[in-house]
């Protein structure tokens, strides 16, 4: 019995394809991976990602050609369990964690993953952000309860890494449909200013500058300073800030900024970083929506995997990653989202236009979970 | 109107009348009081026993909770599909007869041969599909999965047959549909008593199988080959009011019971290779849940397929539209059964006949052709149903009268113009395909056929246009033919827009739009992702062609609307682009420019704020062009993009005021557009001819308008629609309306393809958050900002005040009142509630009253809400909350896509259950078509995510108690699981106490065991059944086992026991050297420490391998071994599950042999067939026991010992006895005759003597016995006497004693 499959080209949106493939059971063939590049084929971080998927699943078939430009991926069943993965240093743990967030509720035995590597970098959403935004988002979908936890044991900054993150997630058979159309109003702003292998004073300087800007809007701001020492501080110095705005309806919007890695780019002033990060948060608030811009695809995926009921969510402007994700969802699940624009009213001061996405879930059920 | 003031009635306050009234009132009150028994007799209702009360309470609670089911979201469609009524039973019980009778009962029509599903309208809200189930177990299994109601026919004169029970068990496994038994052949009973008894007996047996009280119908007898009308009517009534419960599998999977099949394969391809794979088109009502295009389906009996194309058609059997009347009209009693010949198509063994009413209409229908008669009636009904459709057909043919009359003679298969009404338009297309060699009509006529289906309303006004269109369509190019051709070369690979509309939909003229209203046919064009180069390129091509065909017709109709340039360009389009593709694709030079024009327009319309076209289209175009180039050069270059965006945004902000106007413009029939866009539209169109996708611009555009996509940026299109062909690099990545970035998959493909995979959405142009106005733009996002009207704290507070303003301070007794108006309200309310008598009205104006009333109602509602919240909260359980939630979700589900066009809705939701759909399935084995038999049901079962894969399945299995044999591990078994029937090799195993899964050789008799197979992934909890063979009829109960899927991977390892045997060859005390168990030292090393045991029960351990002989090892035991002991090591060996998945392809078998599918044979069958007999193990055979005689050595006593022994114990020196010498042997005595006589006499005498002696002895013995008896008697007498005497003596002694005692006491008394 030949199962269905899809063929793609290029290494972009690599994770989306493999994740959706794993969830739907359709095979995926990705061709021309950096075929015209100087350094053709899959890179180390992608290989590491494939290895992580292999650890989480059972019976997966992966074929890569000699040059690494063609990947064939036939997914097995999601298994979960205790997984320990040494993430590649090229990408931060967030890169891998995002995928695990998408897969974790649908595995056989609850996932307990320990990921080692770079926890915060300038490219991927950091672990702090995911902890502050993705975890509460998952709760909307009924994925809360015992064991949904994301813990940062050690912080690792690029290029040395050395961080450690512990992620556990309970298993669900089905996902609840959501109706998130009202983001509510921001009632508090929280954040974490972290610094490793630099002066602990850095964090305080960041906090001050960030507060300066945010105080214009709301007084309830608390930015936690997190200075890790010794083995918990990883191998490279660095500092950064993650800000999260929480609304009355339980929406979390976040922004983050990380200092330049050691030896790359000009050194950053913590004051600048704090200020810029606060501005980024304001930008994020301007975009608005019920889902943080980094978590758009996560929310869309869970909506797709819901029961055969209507799910609605108000998002900010769609990122190109999200748009591509929508297309991929259509490829794999044959599900299209109804996308409506909500223009801001004339004199409203509630940021830019929003996007209301609606879909009927695929009626997905976790087939890995054992029937007792 | 002036109302006269009447004198009011004065109530008597005193006097006899008032007294009487008072008395009566009191009496009534008393009576009411008395009626309440609780009050009258409170003691009887007091608590007698707390325990008892608790128990009753518990019991009521138990009963209450027992009724609860897990609440589910109600997903039943508003217009449900027809109910599937499956009629089952062994042969010759009257299945066809009852279907025929029921159909006659419902529709007053007679049906000849019942082949395939028959759909009828049975009532105002219900339709039924009757399916007859043959006696084949394959059919029974398939139909049990789709049945809503089962009519189980039982021949009462015979009793239950095995098939009945088999079917019941199949139903039990696959979800239990409603089952109604029907007893037939009751007229064969002569005796009423036996009849009654039989009925009772059968009823009770039926009840034990289904449920107590299951309905069993009696059909008492036949009248003229039919059942009695009254009884059939009763049965029909039962069916039409029956309620159904949702079955898990059916509600979670979409499925279609196909009632029509067509072969779409190119005849040429078939001619070249008769065995080529076919493209097949299946029709039927969609049931279950939503089915999406391009999903995988399983056809039981055929295999797995991917749907290549799917569309919905107008309902061939629609429910009556208005529900005014009580009963159905004759017109509304529809019947649809294409496979049975109703609906114009008759399936025969080797051909499909289409019934042509047309020219033969006038001829009286002969008796033996009831089907035709039906067709006639159906013609009538169909005309009424969608007269429009038929009309268009007629006009088509009447216009092309010459054509038909001529070609009728050439190609005999052309249908007359009148019959066309009967048929489904798609069917016609198929027919025509075969007929018209040039295939000219197909494009056009098909198109308008479908269109006419789509729009049923408001069609009349467009009739002329229609006809024109049709003409044009006829003269149009043979586009359809290509499509039908299947393998005929397709259009060039290209990206097809996700929706039939390209982005140029905005360039529609007003007239066109009106014209094309309701005609859009976009649904068929399945959105195909451009960025995913999937295998279905060919499909795209076909879709495209379809579209183009339709577009032509529409474009052809444009001359009517005289809109100048645009129209002209459009008129030009059909000829050019359709007739000659090459010319088009060779392209005009202005192509890129034109495209830019399009995209820029798009951008503008999307960005909604930009109304700037008026002043400078050209400029804009150029700008955009530049941008595009920039982007092409380097897409990732953010700076330039940012610039761009900033520009846009500025425009945006400045032109905000205009936006709403613009919006209006776009939604409205685009007058403004024309004005603005003429300049760019024309080139656009000219170049459009160059591109395939532009062929159907007009149509796509109309579709867009119909869907009423608001002028707001059409995100949907930007996300899902791929607009430009891959070759064209003239793209721009711009930010639209500050909303999001256009990221078309094909643009800058090379760069994007390998770009960085990152989910972070970094803003490209950060606003200047230092400026006050920018900060102001998000001010209200915070709790500190301004709130919405309805949520503002101040307003809420005020509202509360208004509502709950009055309150009484209980402590002080002070009464606070709300506003004056509020008080009035209260007054009003009070006065309302009082009797009419006490009307004292203030004349208020009507509207005011109205307002007040509304206010009151509102107030009441809120009060009630509050009250509910306060008092019902305790009652509201988790269950209620859950139910409420589900209810809300169901409402939302219904409401969300309710007012959307079906074409559109289908894309979001998928095809709804209840729709009549057409599914095109490519690559079907040719046997499916060549061996097609309408009597066998064709089911398309939709498969969920990853249900199309194969893997390991773990299941709980139990051999059916009625199956006569146990099942052997590794014997192939045919399973019915999910939609599928397949053969697989199960391994049976059972879990030991220590969690080990031990392989079983056979299934246990009356116990569950686990089974692991290699089979299709099916969700856990799905039931399955197993049969050993599906061939023919066998003796006994065919269902071998039933069970449920537990797990979907091979997470347990099945092991079987392995005993390794070795022999000791050296024994030292408790240590022994063992050989023969292993072959190498490595093996031994692996088993070091393993426990051993000998046959005699001595336990031990493997220690270490020995160097001298490979495989030998040293072992220690708890006791000394004997050399004769056998040592064994008990271990477990993992077993692999054989990977056999062999779908039962029973539908592909030749006609008449469909029930003879054989797969892999079991070992037993193989041996039987090949005549192989098992050679038994020679060691296990019974042999005669041969025991060698034992020889013992003579006892040897040493001479020393001999000397010491006493003589008695000394071994005697005995000579061996030799043979007796002859002289010592005594001679035999031979008597003389005389001596003989003497001897005889002596013997006689001695006999007599002996006898006498014996008698005397016995006499003596008897006498002695007598004597002994007597003696005994005497002894007894004596003893008795002695006893008496002793008694007497003792009594006397006792008396004396007493006396003495008494006297002594007396004496003592006297003494004292």
UniProtKB/TrEMBL annotation, chain A:
RNA 3'-terminal phosphate cyclase insert domain location: 181-285
Record GO terms (molecular function): RNA endonuclease activity
InterPro entries: RNA3'-term_phos_cycl_insert (IPR013791), RNA3'_phos_cyclase_dom (IPR023797), RNA3'_phos_cyclase_dom_sf (IPR037136), RNA3'_term_phos_cyc (IPR000228), RNA3'_term_phos_cyc_type_2 (IPR016443), RNA3'_term_phos_cycl-like_CS (IPR020719), RNA3'P_cycl/enolpyr_Trfase_a/b (IPR013792), RPTC_insert (IPR036553)
Domain RNA 3'-terminal phosphate cyclase: 7-339
Protein's GO biological process: endonucleolytic cleavage of tricistronic rRNA transcript (SSU-rRNA, 5.8S rRNA, LSU-rRNA); ribosomal small subunit biogenesis
Keywords annotated in UniProt: Nucleus, Ribosome biogenesis
Principal subcellular localisation of the protein: nucleus
Domain of life of the source: Eukaryota
Localization, UniProt: Nucleus, Nucleolus
GO CC, any one term: nucleolus
Name of a matching Pfam family: RTC
PANTHER family for the chain: RNA 3' TERMINAL PHOSPHATE CYCLASE (PTHR11096), RNA 3'-TERMINAL PHOSPHATE CYCLASE-LIKE PROTEIN (PTHR11096:SF1)
Functional note: As part of the small subunit (SSU) processome, it plays a role in 40S-ribosomal-subunit biogenesis in the early pre-rRNA processing steps at sites A0, A1 and A2 that are required for proper maturation of the 18S RNA. Activates BMS1 by promoting GDP/GTP exchange. Does not have cyclase activity.
Protein family according to the UniProt entry: Belongs to the RNA 3'-terminal cyclase family. Type 2 subfamily.
Record text on subunit structure and interactions: Part of the small subunit (SSU) processome, composed of more than 70 proteins and the RNA chaperone small nucleolar RNA (snoRNA) U3. Interacts with BMS1.
Protein name in the entry: RNA 3'-terminal phosphate cyclase-like protein
Species annotation: Paramormyrops kingsleyae
UniProtKB/TrEMBL annotation, chain B:
TM segment ranges: none
Major localization listed first in the record, in broad terms: nucleus
Keywords: ATP-binding, GTP-binding, Hydrolase, Nucleotide-binding, Nucleus, Phosphoprotein, Ribosome biogenesis
Residue ranges, compositional bias (Acidic residues): 438-471, 501-517, 535-555, 576-587, 612-652, 673-684, 802-812, 826-845
Catalytic activity annotation: GTP + H2O = GDP + phosphate + H(+)
CDD domains per record: BMS1
GO molecular function: ATP binding; GTP binding; GTPase activity; U3 snoRNA binding
GO biological processes: endonucleolytic cleavage of tricistronic rRNA transcript (SSU-rRNA, 5.8S rRNA, LSU-rRNA); liver development; maturation of SSU-rRNA from tricistronic rRNA transcript (SSU-rRNA, 5.8S rRNA, LSU-rRNA); pancreas development
Region ranges (Disordered): 1-44, 410-686, 802-845, 1199-1224, 1252-1312
InterPro entries: AARP2CN (IPR012948), Bms1/Tsr1 (IPR039761), Bms1_N (IPR037875), BMS1_TSR1_C (IPR007034), G_Bms1/Tsr1_dom (IPR030387), P-loop_NTPase (IPR027417)
Intracellular or extracellular location(s): Nucleus, Nucleolus
Biased composition (Basic and acidic residues): 27-36, 565-575, 813-825, 1211-1224, 1265-1279
Keyword Hydrolase found: yes
Record family assignment: Belongs to the TRAFAC class translation factor GTPase superfamily. Bms1-like GTPase family. BMS1 subfamily.
The protein's name: BMS1 ribosome biogenesis factor
């Amino acid at each position: 019995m030949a199962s269905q499959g899809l063929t793609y080209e290029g290494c972009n949106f690599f994770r989306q394809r493999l994740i959706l493939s794993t969830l739907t059971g359709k095979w995926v063939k990705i061709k021309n991976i950096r075929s015209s590049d100087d350094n053709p084929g899959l890179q180390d971080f992608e290989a590491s990602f494939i290895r992580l998927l292999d650890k989480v699943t059972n019976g997966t078939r992966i074929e890569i050609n000699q040059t690494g430009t063609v990947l064939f991926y036939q997914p097995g069943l999601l298994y979960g369990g205790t997984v320990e993965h040494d993430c590649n240093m090229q990408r931060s743990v967030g890169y891998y964690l995002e995928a695990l967030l998408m897969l974790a509720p649908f595995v056989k035995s609850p996932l307990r993953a320990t990921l080692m590597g770079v926890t915060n970098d300038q490219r991927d959403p950091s672990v702090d952000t995911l902890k502050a935004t993705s975890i509460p988002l998952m709760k909307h979908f009924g994925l809360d309860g015992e064991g949904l936890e994301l813990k940062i044991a050690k912080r690792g900054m690029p290029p040395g890494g050395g961080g450690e993150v512990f992620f556990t997630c309970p298993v669900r058979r089905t996902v609840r449909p959501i109706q998130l159309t009202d983001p509510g109003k921001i009632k508090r702003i929280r954040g974490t200013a972290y610094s490793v292998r630099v002066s602990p004073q850095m964090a305080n300087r960041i906090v001050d500058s960030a507060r300066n800007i945010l105080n214009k809007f709301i007084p309830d701001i608390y930015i936690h300073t997190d200075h890790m020492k010794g083995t918990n501080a990883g191998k490279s110095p660095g500092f950064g800030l993650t800000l999260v705005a929480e609304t009355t309806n339980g929406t979390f919007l976040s922004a983050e900024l990380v200092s330049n890695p050691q030896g790359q780019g000009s050194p950053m002033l913590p004051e600048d970083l704090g200020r810029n990060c606060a501005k980024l948060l304001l930008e994020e608030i301007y975009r608005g929506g019920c889902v943080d811009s980094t978590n758009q695809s996560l929310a869309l995926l869970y909506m797709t995997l819901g029961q055969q009921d209507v799910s609605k969510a108000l998002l900010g402007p769609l990122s190109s990653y999200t748009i591509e994700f929508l297309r991929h969802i259509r490829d794999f699940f044959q599900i299209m989202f109804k996308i409506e624009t909500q223009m801001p009213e004339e004199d409203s001061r509630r940021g830019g236009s929003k996007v209301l996405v609606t879909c009927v879930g695929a009626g997905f059920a976790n087939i890995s979970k054992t029937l007792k | 109107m002036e109302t006269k003031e009447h004198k009011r009635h004065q109530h008597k306050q005193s006097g006899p009348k008032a007294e009487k009234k008072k008395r009566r009132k009191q009496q009534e009150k008393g009576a009411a009081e008395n009626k309440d028994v609780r009050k009258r007799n409170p003691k009887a209702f007091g608590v007698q026993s707390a325990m008892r009360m608790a128990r009753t309470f518990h019991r009521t609670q138990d009963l209450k909770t027992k009724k609860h089911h897990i609440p589910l979201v109600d997903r039943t469609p508003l217009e449900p599909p027809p109910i599937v009524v499956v009629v089952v039973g062994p042969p010759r019980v009257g299945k066809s007869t009852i279907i025929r009778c029921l159909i006659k009962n419902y529709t007053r029509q007679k049906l000849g041969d019942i082949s395939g599903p028959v759909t009828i309208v049975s009532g105002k809200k219900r339709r039924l599909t009757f399916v007859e189930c043959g006696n084949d177990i394959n059919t029974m299994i398939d139909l049990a999965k789709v049945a809503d109601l089962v009519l189980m026919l039982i021949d009462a004169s015979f009793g239950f047959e095995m098939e009945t029970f088999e079917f019941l068990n199949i139903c039990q496994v696959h979800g239990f549909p409603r089952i109604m038994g029907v007893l037939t052949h009751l007229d064969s009973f002569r005796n009423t008593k036996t009849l009654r008894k039989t009925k009772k007996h059968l009823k009770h047996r039926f009840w034990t199988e289904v449920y107590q009280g299951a309905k069993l119908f009696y059909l008492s007898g036949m009248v003229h080959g039919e059942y009695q009308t009254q009884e059939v009517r009763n049965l029909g009534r039962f069916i039409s009011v029956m309620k159904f419960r949702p079955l898990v599998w059916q509600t979670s999977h979409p499925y279609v019971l196909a009632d029509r099949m067509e072969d779409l394969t190119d005849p040429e391809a078939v001619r070249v290779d008769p065995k080529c794979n076919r493209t097949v088109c299946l029709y039927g009502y969609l049931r279950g849940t939503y089915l999406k295009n391009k999903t995988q389906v399983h056809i039981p009996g055929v295999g797995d397929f991917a749907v290549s194309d799917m569309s919905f058609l107008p309902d061939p059997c629609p429910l009556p539209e208005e529900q005014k009347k009580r009963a159905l009209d004759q017109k509304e009693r529809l019947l649809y059964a294409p496979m049975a010949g109703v609906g114009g198509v008759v399936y025969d063994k080797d051909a499909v006949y289409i019934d042509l009413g047309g020219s033969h209409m006038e001829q009286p229908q002969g008796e033996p052709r009831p089907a035709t008669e039906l067709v006639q009636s159906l013609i009538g009904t169909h005309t009424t149903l969608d007269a429009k459709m038929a009309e268009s057909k007629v006009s088509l043919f009447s216009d092309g009268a010459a054509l038909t009359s001529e070609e009728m003679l050439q190609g005999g298969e052309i249908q007359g113009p009148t019959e066309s009404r009967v048929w489904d338009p798609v069917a016609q297309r198929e027919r025509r395909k075969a007929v018209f060699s040039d295939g000219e009509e197909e494009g056009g006529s098909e198109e308008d056929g479908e269109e006419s289906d789509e729009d049923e309303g408001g069609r009349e006004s467009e009739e002329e246009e229609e006809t024109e269109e049709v003409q044009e369509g006829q003269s149009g190019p043979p586009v359809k033919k290509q499509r039908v051709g299947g393998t005929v070369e397709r259009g060039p690979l290209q990206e097809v827009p996700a929706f039939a509309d390209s982005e140029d939909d905005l360039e529609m003229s007003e007239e066109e739009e009106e014209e094309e209203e309701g005609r859009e046919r976009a649904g068929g064009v399945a959105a195909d992702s451009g960025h995913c180069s999937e295998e279905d390129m060919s499909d795209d091509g076909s879709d495209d062609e379809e579209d183009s065909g339709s577009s032509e017709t529409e474009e052809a109709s444009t001359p009517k609307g005289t809109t100048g340039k645009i129209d002209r360009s459009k008129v030009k389009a059909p000829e050019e682009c359709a007739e000659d593709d090459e010319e088009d694709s060779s392209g005009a030079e202005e192509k890129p420019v034109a495209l830019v024009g399009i995209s820029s327009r798009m951008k503008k319309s999307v960005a909604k704020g930009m109304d700037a076209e008026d002043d400078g289209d050209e400029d804009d175009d150029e700008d955009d062009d530049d941008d595009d180039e920039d982007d092409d050069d380097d897409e990732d270059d953010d700076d330039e993009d940012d610039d761009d965006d900033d520009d846009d945004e500025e425009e945006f902000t400045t032109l905000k005021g205009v936006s709403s106007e613009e919006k209006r413009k776009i939604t409205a029939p685009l007058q403004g557009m024309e004005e603005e866009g003429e300049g760019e539209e024309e080139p656009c169109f000219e170049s459009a001819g160059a591109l395939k996708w532009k062929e159907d611009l007009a149509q796509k555009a109309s579709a867009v308008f119909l869907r009423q996509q608001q002028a707001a940026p059409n995100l949907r299109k930007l996300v899902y629609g791929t607009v430009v062909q891959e070759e064209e690099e003239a793209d721009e990545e711009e930010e639209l309306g500050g909303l999001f970035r256009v990221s078309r998959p094909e643009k800058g493909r090379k760069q994007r393809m390998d770009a960085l995979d990152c989910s972070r959405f970094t803003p490209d142009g950060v606003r200047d958050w230092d400026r006050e106005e920018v900060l102001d733009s998000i001010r209200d996002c915070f709790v500190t900002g301004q709130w919405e009207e309805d949520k503002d704290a101040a307003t809420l507070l005020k509202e509360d005040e208004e509502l709950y303003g009055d309150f009484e301070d209980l402590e002080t007794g002070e009464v606070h009142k709300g506003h004056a108006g509020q008080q009035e309200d209260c007054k009003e309310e009070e006065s309302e509630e009082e009797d009419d008598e006490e009307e004292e009205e203030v004349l208020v104006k009507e509207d005011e009253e109205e307002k007040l009333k509304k206010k009151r109602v509102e107030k009441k509602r809120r009060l009630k809400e509050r009250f509910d919240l306060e008092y019902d909260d305790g009652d509201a359980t988790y269950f209620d909350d859950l139910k409420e939630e589900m209810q809300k979700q169901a409402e939302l589900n219904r409401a969300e896509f309710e007012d959307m066009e079906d074409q559109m809705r289908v894309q979001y939701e998928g095809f709804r259950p209840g729709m009549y759909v057409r599914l095109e399935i490519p690559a079907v084995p040719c046997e499916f078509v060549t061996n097609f038999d309408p009597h066998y049901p064709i089911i398309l079962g939709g498969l969920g995510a990853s249900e199309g894969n194969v893997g390991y399945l773990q299941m709980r299995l139990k051999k059916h108690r009625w199956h006569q044999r146990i099942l052997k591990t590794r014997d192939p078994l045919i399973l019915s699981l999910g939609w599928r029937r397949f053969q697989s090799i199960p391994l049976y195993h059972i879990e030991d106490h220590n969690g080990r899964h031990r392989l079983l050789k056979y299934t246990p008799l009356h116990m569950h065991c686990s089974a692991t197979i290699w089979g299709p992934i099916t969700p856990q909890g799905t039931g399955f059944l197993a049969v050993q063979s599906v061939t023919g009829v066998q003796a006994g109960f065919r269902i071998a086992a039933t069970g449920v899927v537990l797990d979907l991977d091979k997470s347990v390892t099945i092991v079987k026991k392995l005993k390794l045997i070795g022999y000791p060859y050296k024994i030292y005390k408790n240590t022994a050297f063992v050989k023969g168990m292993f072959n190498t030292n490595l093996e031994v090393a692996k088993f070091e420490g393993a426990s051993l045991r000998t046959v005699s029960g001595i336990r031990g351990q493997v220690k270490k391998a020995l160097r001298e002989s490979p495989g030998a090892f040293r072992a220690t035991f708890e006791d000394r071994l004997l050399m004769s002991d056998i040592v064994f090591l008990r271990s477990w060996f993992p077993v692999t599950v054989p990977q056999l998945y062999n779908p039962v392809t029973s539908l592909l078998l030749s006609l008449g042999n469909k029930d003879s599918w054989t797969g892999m044979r079991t070992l037993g069958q193989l041996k039987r067939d090949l005549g192989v007999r098992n050679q038994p193990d020679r060691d296990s055979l019974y042999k005669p026991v041969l025991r060698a005689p034992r020889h013992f050595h003579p006892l040897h006593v040493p001479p020393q010992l001999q000397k010491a022994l006493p003589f008695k114990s000394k071994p005697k020196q005995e000579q061996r006895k030799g043979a007796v010498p002859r002289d010592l042997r005594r001679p035999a005595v031979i008597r003389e005759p005389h001596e003989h006589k003497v001897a005889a006499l002596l013997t006689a005498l001695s006999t007599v003597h002996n006898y006498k002696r014996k008698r005397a002895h016995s006499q003596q013995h008897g006498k002695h016995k007598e004597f002994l008896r007597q003696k005994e008697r005497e002894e007894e007498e004596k003893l008795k006497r002695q006893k008496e005497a002793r008694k007497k003596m003792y009594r006397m002694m006792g008396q004396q004693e007493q006396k003495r005692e008494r006297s002594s006491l007396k004496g003592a008394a006297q003494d004292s």
